[in-house]
Amino acid sequence: MTRLFAILFPGSPAVNALLATLYISGPPNFLLALCPTNIDPASLSVMVAFAVGGLLGDTLFHLLPEIFLGEDEPQNARFVLVEPNRNLLLGLAILIGFMTFVAMDKGLRIATGGAGHDHSHGHAQAPAQEDEMKALTTGVDIGGAAKSRKKGKDTKKDVVQAPQEKSKEINPSVKLGGYLNLIADFTHNITDGLAMSASFYASPTIGATTTVAVFFHEIPHEVGDFALLVQSGFSKRAAMGSQFITAIGAFLGTLIGIAIQEFGGGSTDADAPMPRNGGIWGTSLTWGDMLLPFTAGTFLYVGTVAVIPELLETGSNKMVELRKTLVQFTAVALGAGIMLYISWHE
Q: Which GO biological-process labels does this protein carry (predicted)?
């Protein structure tokens, strides 16, 4: 393992951090090319459920423990000083991340004319159905109108094209959730890049083990994100391209971390004590420490508000829906279980 790490990371801490970012960003995205071009909608809903489990598992089993307690360092014992005000600020950052995405989602809905207000029904109504509903509420006779439409030439076009348009209809709430997830994934990749740079400046061994941990986190995470994007109406090529764009965030975070270490007087001693009262509002927190809880808040929003409503949609066939629900819950448990296993053994 030591020889392998020496081959993979042969340079300075800055070069090794950039190489590690390339390793964790490239292969997981290329694995998406193995996914089929035409994905069955039933299997896609299972992948979305897997993404929910992965997002919530990553937040609850990895991000939150790291936010409040820090990373585990097996080579030494570390005394953790409990700062109530520090924990309050971290919780505030999580809430800010959550509410920032609430505001972004609300703004997108207003910009699109209120699309996505109802998560379960009302989005796929054809214009003729809307006219019929309007006629029922106003008392206008729709029978004659319907007959006159059938006599017209344009009526056949409406009848033929309506099913095609309906089949392409994407739930606006899910579409917005896909875009929000891209933004959340971008900020998460920034934190990964910051972790890469900090770990390699601490020691080569810590950097290598951090790379392995982040790499195995990224594989299920990228698959889940890919499923969310396809569910949001992205083509396979567009979804893969979007994932590569979010990978820029990892390189951005790595470059920021390198700049801090090289030019900002960053300490290379992993055991250097943090100043207790020299940070934000008299705590040991710096502004860089607030990015990880902000990311946790965005993941909570995307995994719950933006995606779970899609899993709550049900049809009229009870037995089919029960089987579908069982499969979806199994996928959620699988996604969360993978994150739990990785976090448990890293």
A: intracellular zinc ion homeostasis
